[in-house]
Amino acid sequence: MRIKLRLDYDGTAYHGFQIQENANTIQAELEKAIWKAGGGNVRIDGAGRTDAGVHAWEQVAAFTSDTRIPGERWAQILNYYLPQDIHIQESSEIPETFHPRFSPHTKTYLYQIYQGNKGKSIYQRYACCIKFQLDETVMQRACKDLVGEHDFRAFCATRSSVKQYVRKVIQCELVKEDDWIRLFIQANGFLYNMVRIIAGTLIDVGRGRLPEDVFQKMLQTGKRSLGGKTAPPQGLALYRIQYEDEEKIVDNEPMKNYTN
User: How do residues 195-228 score in pLDDT, each as one tens digit?
Assistant: First the structure.
């Protein structure tokens, strides 16, 4: 039986999603919980390999087990065994051919920037907290240059082993609310540290350190050095995953849904 899980988690205490030796990860906790629930010693497949300190409002994972536990029951059972910073939203039985990472889908990431003063000791776990004000209008205009299919090699960490840099960005939008600026990026795939490089560069655009057309120049030249610093992981969250065979979601304004 193949089981699909939708889950969310606070990544603060974990070294990312993917299992590692001598490190606590989301995948390790999921596999431990499945074993305790009687599902056997299984290997979890995830849709995205979030890094240390990165969160997920919605992650998708799947595993295969010989258990007779109905698919829809797994969410309740696993939540009993999982720590409180990992939560299964729903579970279901799916075809054996489904793979969260390789089945056709799009991902949406959220990056949060906090410009206020009150609550920074709390928000620093979930946002990039800054001491200066940003010009979100200029940042929003810069975001438009990322939409479309491009070679994003200038937005990839140097230690990445990827050989194909072309990705299609479907939506890139900023939402300003009080002291918060939230960046939503939807694409058919992301490179290692791509969103954090975009966010860090946008921050420098917003404070006037980089020109509004910096993304155009990075895409044209492929030079990472033209961009800003890689933003910290705390502000990043995997926000939504949508598969082609699921009911289509018409969502041109993701900012209206980030508190759902």
Answer: 999 999 999 999 999 999 999 999 999 999 999 9
Domain count, the chain: 2
- Do both 32 and 114 map to the same domain? no
How does pLDDT run across 110-132, given as a tens digit for each residue? Answer: 999 999 999 999 999 999 999 99
For the annotated catalytic residues, the residue numbers are 51
Q: For residue 221, give its domain range.
A: 106-243
- Residue 206 falls inside a structural domain: yes
Provide the 10 A C-beta neighbour count for residue 149. 12
Structural domain includes residue 251: no
pTM for the whole thing?
0.91
Q: Alpha carbon of 140 to those of 118, 172, 186: distances in Å?
A: 25, 9, 15
3-state class of 168 per DSSP?
strand
